[in-house]
């Protein structure tokens, strides 16, 4: 385990359109016309790099989800977008969400290998499954069950890792005089034959700077936590209270041993949406400004989506109604939402306001020092190895975080002044995996 | 039809590793270690843009094909790579090869829409089908027949176009004060239900600068030509002689009317590998240098792949043996190779030398003026609307082309001095398509 005196926070900037708050696009400090303008995202990546953050991250889905009448929901595709960010940055890690549900492992392995080459070792993959009805209808299939999605995801990842290993580090000889380009003894057919996939390999892209792009995961269901404990190297999670954060952290770290992994093999990064003011009053005013821009019908529709319940006809000023037993799909997020409403005795309207900032992630409004206090508390008390930072408005919320909260974390000795590593793995303090085929080759 | 006096060539730079010649990686003017270095491709794109070329283009396949012992065959994935090139260029078009055989139309529509946004309207899609055994084995399927691949490709493209049309140009309202982001009456479910695909839509990426990224095609089989006549806006083709070029050109342009298309709706761009010297002698010396670097075993294997025949045991210094009737898959390329060998009475070794420069595309060695003469002859005599330029070595062969051949074409009035358009379509002189759903909406 790391020395607690030198242990440092890891910070990821979660980039979402013009901000994570549902009403961000209506706020005077954003420009929603920049939603499909690459320069907007390039600016965000440069700001994050200026702040020495570990990485930026893009969520994704393969359907138009939510009510686009009332929110800026069109999106660029993450892998193409991150390549364009790689071209204008040098250090920041680049994490893309790609689903295992409607994809093929060969394509996904290759695109991440390509991004890892292009970025010089800064690629990360947030592994998700596609749960939605609308997504299933874009691929002509019946929506798969939770268990089926995770079973496919596990085998998918196994194939992808084999493909990333299919070229050993020293497979390319490059002997021009002798006409010997590559040592085919170090390029391996993977001949995977499983329940979901049959893939021969090898990849047609050589071994990448990181060996394997960083593996990130964000599901908090039972299957999700098991998947993370087996495979993930960084975990994004939504936790509202220190106690919940500690419980999740301890639970996930405890699961590692069963898979032969150590405490430090996985970084746990709870989400935090920092609403920053130079005074607490200013921060609360910004929070209120954003809350006042929420469209109630949109908020009800979002709350229904997050919980999997139809609340669109509910009374805004009454408490959240009793909810039926959990169903497949949105379990962990529903529990979080219901717990929040009950704990704080919120009306539906108040709940919508609380969720609008981070879709279930924790919102902290305050001065830079107050926000740093919160982060420090979680970091020092077994609830976080770092944070998934979700600014309510972009780019302003990110530049405020970098300019005011990061220095506060730095002077407290909690965050780096300069990048330590040359790759995303290097900055996250995670090892570079070797090729499984190389290991076989050196066996007696 | 364009005024013949103002009609201009269109030029695409086909970027292939460190050069199109099979032995390029062994030549002292290349650096094969740059094969997976994004800066190599960024340099190439900037050179092409300096020469005012219309576009750069990347081929692709989804298997390691060919003998990597003797050639630099590892590749970056085109869409991720082109995004990184978009970030460092302003005008050059960016054409990526993506197969319809093992992909899903929703993913492909979205990635090209994303690239079109990121590049400000410079994306093009070279539509291919995947014919190889090795490719089929990476997706766990039996290799589909030629006809099945093209049937799937046709429906695939139909779905992709519908998805690109699913957001009308003016679907985004962006009314912040009123809380009205998009007009859902202008965002359309496509509800495609066909033999191969069932896709509801809409896309979750808004309408792009070009409406539809440019559609490019390169198959020269009967199915390929019909596909091009129905759908393509630019066609890459391998033609060895002026007569063959004229026949292909006339044939393809003749087929357009049956699909309600005009002569000028498709640009035909034969491949040309220019081996450039300041004197003819210098050009021939470079050609000889490259030829001397060919590894015979590799050449035989490549010839076998191109023709679909096993020639690996053949006598290098004998004529090409009689070949059996054509089979599914490599027909058009086999015919070209056999015709070339017969026409010029080549031994197998000589044939390998002739093919090594452009894998069946025409190789022209000479001074800039001689190369311009050849291009002019084809352009003025009904064999080409422009060229797919395949430099034998990269970057040197491309910078020589831009610095010496392009000015020669410019002074002859055959090529632009400055970009005319703001998008790839604009520079190719092709119209921007409207959304099919908008057309429906204005019907009485």
Automatic annotation (TrEMBL), chains A, B:
Keywords: Flavoprotein, FMN, Monooxygenase, Oxidoreductase. Residues 32-379 form the Luciferase-like domain. CDD domains: Nitrilotriacetate_monoxgenase (cd01095). This is LLM class flavin-dependent oxidoreductase. Its EC number is 1.-.-.-. Pfam families: Bac_luciferase. Belongs to the NtaA/SnaA/DszA monooxygenase family. The keyword Electron transport does not apply. Gene3D superfamilies: Luciferase-like domain (3.20.20.30). One of its GO terms (molecular function) is oxidoreductase activity. InterPro entries: Diverse_substr_monoxygenases, Luciferase-like_dom, Luciferase-like_sf, NTA_MOA.
């Amino acid at each position: 385990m790391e020395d607690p005196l030198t242990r440092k926070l890891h910070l990821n900037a979660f980039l979402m359109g013009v901000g994570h708050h549902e009403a961000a696009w209506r706020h005077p400090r954003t420009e929603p016309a920049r939603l499909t303008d690459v320069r907007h995202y390039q600016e965000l990546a440069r700001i994050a790099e200026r702040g020495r953050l570990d990485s930026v991250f893009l969520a994704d889905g393969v359907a138009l989800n939510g009510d686009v009448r009332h929110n800026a929901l069109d999106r660029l595709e993450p892998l193409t977008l991150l390549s364009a960010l790689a071209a204008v940055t040098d250090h920041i890690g680049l994490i893309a969400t790609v689903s295992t549900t409607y994809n093929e492992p060969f394509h996904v392995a290759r695109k991440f290998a390509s991004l890892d080459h292009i970025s010089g070792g800064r690629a990360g993959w947030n592994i998700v499954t596609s749960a939605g009805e609308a997504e299933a209808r874009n691929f002509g299939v019946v929506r798969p069950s939770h268990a089926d999605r995770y079973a496919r995801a596990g085998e998918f990842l196994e194939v992808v890792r084999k493909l990333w290993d299919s070229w050993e580090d020293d497979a390319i000889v490059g002997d021009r005089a002798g006409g010997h380009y590559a040592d085919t003894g170090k390029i391996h057919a993977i001949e995977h034959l499983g329940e979901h996939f049959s893939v021969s390999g090898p990849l047609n892209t050589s071994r990448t700077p990181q060996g394997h792009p960083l593996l990130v995961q964000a599901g908090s269901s039972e299957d999700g936590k098991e998947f993370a404990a087996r495979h993930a190297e960084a975990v994004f999670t939504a936790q509202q209270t220190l106690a919940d954060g500690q419980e999740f952290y301890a639970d996930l770290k405890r699961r590692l041993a069963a898979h032969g992994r150590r405490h430090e093999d996985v970084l746990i990064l709870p989400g935090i949406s920092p609403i920053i003011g130079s005074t607490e009053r200013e921060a609360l005013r910004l929070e209120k400004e954003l809350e006042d821009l929420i469209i109630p019908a949109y908020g009800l529709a979002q709350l229904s989506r997050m919980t999997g319940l139809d609340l669109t006809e509910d009374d805004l000023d009454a408490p959240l109604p009793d909810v039926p037993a959990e169903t497949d799909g949105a379990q962990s997020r529903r529990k979080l939402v219901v717990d929040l409403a009950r704990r704080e005795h919120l009306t539906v309207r108040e709940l919508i306001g609380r969720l609008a900032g981070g879709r279930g992630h924790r919102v902290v409004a305050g001065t830079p020092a107050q926000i740093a206090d919160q982060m420090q508390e979680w970091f020092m008390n077994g609830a976080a190895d770092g944070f998934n930072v979700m600014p309510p408005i972009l780019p302003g919320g990110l530049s405020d975080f970098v300019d005011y909260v990061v220095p506060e974390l730095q002077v407290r000795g909690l965050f780096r002044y300069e990048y330590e590593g040359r790759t995303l793995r290097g900055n996250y303090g995670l090892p570079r995996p070797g090729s499984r085929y190389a290991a076989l080759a050196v066996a007696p």
